[in-house]
Amino acid sequence: KELIYTESDLIVTPIIDNPKIMKLVPVRFDSKTLHVPAYSVEKLSSMKDTDWNNFLKRMCSLLDSSEKSTGAARSKLNLLHYLCTLAVHKEIASRLISSQLFPILIQQLRAASNWDIRANGARVIGLLALHTSELGENVPASEAITVLTELIRENFRNSKLKQCFLPALGELLYLMASKEEKGEHPRECWAFPSAVCTVLMRCLQEG
User: Fold this and answer.
1) pTM of the model
2) What fold does the segment set 7-12+30-206 form as a domain?
3) What CA–CA distance (Å, rounded) separates 123 from 25?
4) How far is CA 155 from CA 6, 66, 114, 148, 173, in A?
5) Which GO terms describe its molecular function (predicted)?
């Protein structure tokens, strides 16, 4: 073992927002144009269930809005930036990933016409996957993996977009593998298409 492994091989480092992989772009949001109160993590952690659910509903409603104007896109983007700052906290990440917000983030990946919204939606998903301590069977992680794989395949020649979607895909795969390894969920719970492996191999060969 001492000859085969070095200590650093056994240390798991983040895939998303890892400065050793990519230069970090700081996330900033404008609290004045957020359309939801810019609560701190401390405030959200101490919230009663009713207040938390109301706050969550407002965020979901904003993200799920079908309005196509530039202002609406800017509002969504601002909210996603705010979510990036929340998703790095373990308790909040665990609550958000198992909430109704997660399917809406997947829907934005699939349908948003603005690529910045898709890229930042993927970033939120990746950060949630990295920082959550739980992953319930009801979380549509397989669906998120399928959508991210399709986006990478469709935009294979666009390295900038691939660098947005690959980290989120990596974090989800690692999260699912680690939960499965601990025996927390049966394998059938999170089946995903073989296209995932094909796309990842292509990225490794041609990237």
Assistant:
1) 0.91
2) Leucine-rich Repeat Variant (1.25.10)
3) 12
4) 36, 24, 14, 11, 20
5) kinase activity
